[in-house]
Amino acid sequence: MQDMKIRCVSCKGEFEFTASEQEYYQRIGLRQPKRCKPCRGKETRYLDTDAIIAFVQAVEDKKGFKRDVRLVFAHLVEETGELARAVYLHEREALVKDYPDPSDIGAELIDIIFLASYLADILRIDLNKQIPERMADIRVQYAVENKKGGGE
């Protein structure tokens, strides 16, 4: 692999995507970045918990689920077990394949995000407020630099 120049979709400037960065991105299953590091740093992406909750409530209405903390929590625990199994299988597959497919892990993580968001809604916890507050606490606790975003 060779270093490549990529044009940032945000600022239109060129940035270098080194061979080692390409190998890392490929190894963990990421696409090449579309934005330079400064533009990626400008973004702050939190979960759109309102959209998640609306979606889960629509599924609840369609399936006749109950808004019961114990049932949602039990389902969350079940999904956490499924995530553990998916991670175990992924790691086992990594012993024989260079680039195992992480989509099962992604699916289980999404299920957990949905259920955790739904549980927060039932308990009237505003995640849109809590996420930035908790991130600020963690930054102080671990002396992490106050950077924004991630994303592409």
Can you tell me about this structure?
There is one protein chain. The chain starts with a strand and ends in a 10-residue tail after the last helix. It is extended. β1 (4-7) and β2 (14-17) form a beta hairpin. Helix content is 61%, strand content 5%. It is mostly helical and 152 residues long. The chain has a two-stranded antiparallel ribbon with strand order 1-2.
What are the main properties of this structure?
single chain, 152 residues, mainly alpha, Helix Hairpins, 2 domains
Looking at this structure, what is the CATH superfamily of the largest domain? MazG-like
| Rg, Å, rounded | 19 Å
- The helix-and-strand class reads mainly alpha
Question: What percentage of residues falls in helices of 4 or more residues?
Answer: 55-70%
Number of helices: 6
> Could you list the spans in which at least 5 consecutive residues all have pLDDT below 50?
none
Strand order, biggest sheet?
A: 1-2
Topology:
Layout: E1 4-7, E2 14-17, H1 19-28, H2 37-42, H3 49-63, H4 69-94, H5 103-122, H6 127-142
Compact overview of the structure:
With 152 residues, the chain is mainly α. The chain has helices spanning 19-28, 37-42, 49-63, 69-94, 103-122, 127-142, and strands at 4-7, 14-17.
